[in-house]
Amino acid sequence: MILPKTALTKIEKGKPGRILENLMLSKFSGYIRVGFKMDELCSAEVLLENGKILAAEILRIKSKKSVYGDEVLSELANLENSVVEIYTLSPEQIKKALELNKSARVSEAGVMRLERDKIIERYGIEKPDEKEIEQVITEAVGNSELAVELEKEKIMKKYGIKKPSEEEIDYLISNALGEEEIEEVVSVDFGQLKRELVDLLNSKIGKPSKKTVGIIESCGSYEELIKKGTEIEKALRTLVMFIPREKIEEVISEIEQKIGRKLT
After folding, report:
1. pLDDT tens, 70-84?
2. Which of 9, 105, 147, 232 has the greatest number of CB atoms lying within 10 Å of its CB?
3. pTM, full prediction
């Protein structure tokens, strides 16, 4: 997405879906950026205002393809631990960002599905397979749509299952989100991240990586590390005379995966 340039507010590490949920509960205004790798390296951005999700995009770095809106929320909900950058925006900045990213807008239905899925996951509710239910009912009473609906009602009545109204569902979600304790998300341990990067360089490249290691060790914060991304990548690419290009690309890719974003 096209978003205003602003200072990084904080970094958190955890499940993006849970971090996003916590930001919604705290009425956060701004955006998050998540770096992750599935089939290829991806960068996701989600724009919020007063805890409400407004727009979202996932950019596939290699293929240069993007996914927008509701589909982004579904994908983020399934991600495991990732590095999440959090940026705070003013109301004016959010308004401008929304105007520039109309194609990435998220629908009310998309947000509701995300909230319902998180509740279902949290309380261990197993979703019924609709096709299997209809197959069993059809075999018992035939193909009539009316018969199927009637049989469903009978089954629900027999087992004391009450079909909730939309208002009841919304009320349940509101209560669950309001009363649930916000899970603590562990902040990124920058010292540990540096050690992991240095260990990676030493194990994959060895002594020739001395200059790159020096750049990383000189960084005093994650933000400084990100700013020196171009310098780090340049130092690695100068080793192509001694190290196979494929090896260099592999190391760069692993570094980007660890820091959660592209070096340049």
Report:
1. 888 888 888 888 999
2. 232
3. 0.48
CB atoms within 10 A of CB 262: 16
In this structure, are residues 228 and 215 in contact, taking their beta carbons and an 8 Å threshold?
yes
Cα 262 to Cα 60: distance, rounded to the nearest angstrom: 12
Name the nearest CA neighbour of 61 among 76, 82, 39.
39
What's the sign of the alpha-carbon dihedral 181, 192, 200, 262?
Answer: positive
Q: Which helix (H) or strand (E) holds 59?
A: strand 52-60
Provide long-range contacts, Cβ within 8 A and 24+ apart, for 215-219. 219/194
Residue 109's closest CA among 170, 154, 157?
Answer: 170
User: How many Å apart are CA 51 and CA 26, to the nearest integer?
Assistant: 6
State pLDDT tens for residues 117-138.
Answer: 555 455 454 555 666 666 665 5
